Amino acid sequence: MSQKKKTVWFEVQENETIEDCLNRMKEEGYTPMGRKEEPLFQQVDGEYVPVRQLIKFKGVLLDS
């Protein structure tokens, strides 16, 4: 039987909403305890252009 990690970072995917990500966390038994955002850049003609914002939630395993 595999044991789950106590803390896992969940990234909001391009095709899902923040609410979808939070629901996915809950289904896996985690509750959000932190959030961080990072810009994602792409190089276009030698310049870095922001493409989108990466949103990640820190999930902590709930005790059953």
TrEMBL record:
Q: What is this protein called?
A: NETI motif-containing protein
Native organism? Sporosarcina contaminans
Query: Out of the domains of life, which is the source?
Result: Bacteria
